[in-house]
Amino acid sequence: MDLQRQERAWPFVGVLACVLTLLVSWPRSWEHVSAFRLVAPADRSTADLSPTTEGLPDEPAHSDDPLPRLTAASGVPPAWAEAVSKAPQDACDESAVQAERQFELAKPSAKLASCPIRLGWPELTLAHVLLPTDVALLHAEAEWPSTDVVEDKSPWAEPDPPSITPLPPVDVAPSNESLWAKDVVPVLDDLVTECGRRAARRAWDSPWPEPVALWDRLADVAWECETGPWAWQVLREARRLGSVGWQGGDAEVRSIFTALDERARAAEGLAAQLDDYALAAKLRQAEHALTRRLALWSQVLESGGPCSKAHDPAGVDPGRLSSCLAWIDAIEGEPGRLRQWEEYLELDALRRLVVEPSARDLSTRRALAQRTLRRITRPRLSVEQREFLASEPLVALEAELRRHAAGPIDLGDVLRHVEEYERSGAPQDARRVAEDGLLLELTDDVSRRELARRLGAHYRDANVRVVITEALLDRMMPEREPEHQWVRERVMGTPVRGESVTSAEVGVRLIPDPNRLRMALEIEGRVSALTTSTAGPATFWSDSWSTYVAEKEIELGMWGLRMQPADVRVDNDIRLRSLSTTLDVIPLIGTVAQEVAQSQHQKNQPKVSREVERKVAAQAREQIDEEVGAALGDLDAKLKRRVFGPLAALSLGPEMLETQTTESRLSMRLRLAADEQLAGHTCRPWAPSDSLASCQIHESALNNVIEQMGLNGGTFTQAEVRRRIAEVFNSPEIIERDPGREDVEITFAAHDAVRVRCQDGGLAIRLSIARLKKSPRVWTDFQVRAFYRPESDGLRAELVRDGIVHLDAVKSARSQIPLRGVFSKTFSRQQPWKLTPDRFVDDPRMAHLAVTQLVIEDGWIGVALGPKRVDSQPLVAQREGADVD
Known about the structure:
Blueprint: H1 2-30, E1 37-39, E2 69-71, H2 78-85, H3 94-102, E3 116-117, E4 124-125, H4 133-136, H5 186-203, H6 212-221, H7 228-244, H8 250-273, H9 277-302, H10 318-329, H11 335-345, H12 347-355, H13 362-377, H14 383-389, H15 392-405, H16 411-424, H17 427-441, H18 446-459, E5 464-469, H19 470-476, E6 483-491, E7 494-510, E8 517-535, E9 538-557, E10 560-563, E11 567-581, H20 589-649, E12 655-661, E13 665-671, E14 693-698, H21 699-708, E15 715-717, H22 718-728, H23 733-737, E16 744-748, E17 754-759, E18 762-774, E19 777-793, E20 796-801, E21 806-808, H24 813-826, E22 833-834, H25 838-841, E23 849-857, E24 860-867
Antiparallel strand pairs: 1-2, 3-4, 5-13, 5-14, 6-7, 7-8, 8-9, 9-10, 9-11, 12-13, 14-24, 15-16, 16-18, 17-18, 18-19, 19-20, 19-21, 20-22, 23-24
C-alpha cells in the first residue's frame, strides 16, 4: 500500500521540480522575450549606429554585444511603418540623426504596453520607448519634463509653455516620476533630450506663427494605426512653413497650403470609415483645427503675407467729416424721426469731435467712429431702416467714419493672437482676436476685410445649435376631446336646430425652406350633427357629416412667432332621415305634400351644402385662430420675456447665422456674442442619427452671457447675485427656490470674475474673488473652482457636482472651513443643474423617449433625445442628416 502511494507521488514530484526550475530561470528567460525583436546590426558599415553605453549600470553577462536595436514586431501596419519612415528628419546635429535612426518607433498594442524590457538599466515599459524627433518637435520652444512629482493640474491652471511630453499608450498608469530623469536613462538623455531642446528652439524660424495647438490636435490621432499616416502627412506639410517661411516664395507657400487642403478634405472621408466614435471625433477636431487655420493663412498670403507692414489709416480729415454731417442736417423729413436717428448715430458727439480741438484725441475719435459704424452695419435692422441708411448722405458718412475708425493692424500679429488664443483659451486672448477682427473690418483694403470676414466665420461662429424633428413636434401636439354643441343656425333663411359632435386631430407638417423656420399646424376635424328644420308646412329631420382640413402656417424668427390666418377646406354630406307635413293627416293630399317637400329638399340640397360648408369653415377658422393664437401667443411672450429680450438687453443678439427647414427637421445655428466677443470655433459633437431633438451649446455662449451681466469688479451679497440673475432673465423662481444669504458679501475680481470651461468630459466653473466678507472674517484674492459631471437617466439630464469645492490661494486649512461652508451650499451636490425641465420629464407623451447623448467635449455640451434603446447601448453618433450641417 505504501509502495503504491510512492509510485503515485512520483509524477507530482516531477512536476514540482519542473516548476521550481522555471521559477529559477524565468527572470533570465524573460529578458529574451518581447513583443519587439532585439536585433543586432549585421553589417557595421551599413547598420545604424548604436548609442554609446558609457555611464550605463552594470549589465548582465549576456549583453556584451553592442546594444541591440528596437525594431517593430510583426503585426505593425505597413501604412504606419511607411508614415514613420517618411517622418521629417530635422535634427539639429549628427548626434540627433544617429539617435533618431537608432531607435525606430512602432506603436505597441494596449496589451503589450505594460510588458517590461530589461536592457541593463532600471526597468522600462514600451510606453517609455523613445519618441522620434518629429514628435518632440510637435511642441516648440519647450522644456523636457522635470524629475519633480507630476502636479495634479486643474483645468483652470494658467497655461504652461508647450512641453515635450511623451505620449503614454492606452491603459498605462501614469507615474509620478519623470520618464526621462537623468538618473534613469542617462544615455537617452545625452543623445536626444539636449538635442531635442536645441532642435525645438530652432525648428520654427518663420514669420508664420507656429501652430502649437495644432500639434497637440495631431498628437491625439498620430498614434493610432487608422489615423497615424494622415497625421504625419499633415505634420510634414505644416512644418514646411517653419523652414520655407523666410526664404520660400509665394509659390512654395501656396503648394504647402494646397497639400494641406487636400489632407483636410481627406479627413472627412477617413472619419466616416472609423468605427471608434471617440477616435473619429478627435480626427474631426484635428481636421477642423487645420481647416480654420488654412482659411486665415491663405487670406493672409493674399493680403501680402505675415510680414506685410502694419496698415495705418490715411486721409483722416475732420473737414470731410464736417461736410458729411452738414449733408445729413440738410435731409428733409419728420423732425421727430430725424432726431431719433441723430441720437442713435450719436451725431452730436461727432459734431463735437469736429468742432472742439480737445475732442480730437485719437483713441476717443476711433472708439466713437467704431461704435457708430457698428450701429450703421448691425444686421438686425428693418427694411425701412436699411433704406434710410442706404441714402447718399449716410453712405458718405459711413465711408468717412471708416477712415477715422481704422487703426494700425499687422497681419503677423493677427495670426499670433489667434495661435495664443488657440493654445490658452484665455479671455484676454479672445478679446484681442475679436479686436483684431473689428479693426480689419474697418479698413479700406478689400483683402483685409475678407480676412476679417473669415476670422469672424471661424472664431465667431455659432455657439448654439438646435435641431427639432417633425416626429417630436407631432408627438407633442395635444389630444383634443370630442366637443358636444347645440346647433342654433339659419340655413337659406330656415331655422335649424339640433346637436353636433366635433372631434379633431392636430399634427405638424414642416414646410421646406432653406433660409427660414416654417411649419404648419394641420387640423383634421369631423362634425356630425342631428338637425331639424321647418319650412312652411314641412319639417325635415337630417343627418349631416362635415370633414374639414385646416392649416395654420407659423414662422419662427428673432422677432418671435409669426402666424398666418388658418386656411380651412370643408366637405359636407347631408342625408334626409325623415320628413313630415301638417297635411299628412289628409289622405292623398298628405302623400302629395310629402313628395313636393322631398322634391324641394333635393333641389335645394347643393345650395344648403355650400352654405353649411361656409359656416363650418368660418366657425373652424375662428376657433383655430383663437385657440392656437392664445397658446402660441403665451409661448411667444415667454420667449421674448425670458430669452430674446434679456439677451438683446445684454447686447448678445442672439443672431441667427443659419436656419433651415427640411421635410423632417428644423435646424438653427445661433450666435450669442457681443461685437467684442468671440463665439464658437471648435468642432461640435455629432448627435446620434436617430435623434428626435438635439442641442449643442459652446462654452463661449455661457461665458459671454456671464461677462455681459456686469459682475466684474462688483460688490454684491449672495442674495443680490441671485436677484440680479433673476431680474436679467425674468425668472423669479430662482429666488423662490433659494433666496441666498445676506450675510455674505462678495467683491468679484475686476476681470473674468466667473468663467466656465467644458473639457475632459466635464464642466468646470471658476470664481475669481477679490474680497469676501462673512462677519467677522474677511478673505481676499482667491479662487473657487467646482467641477460637474454629466449624468442621465431616462429623460433626465443633469450636471452633478463632482468631488469637493476647490479653494485656491487660501493657505490656511482653518481659513478654508468657513469658506467651504459658503461655497458648498452655492455649488450644492444636492442641487444639480438640470438640462431637461421637470414638466418635460413628467409628460406622458414622452414615455418612450430617453436622453440618448450627453457629452462634453472640445468646449461643447451636447444633448440628444431619441427613442429608448432595448440593449441600452448608445448608438454611434453621426451626422444627423445629409440636409443638416
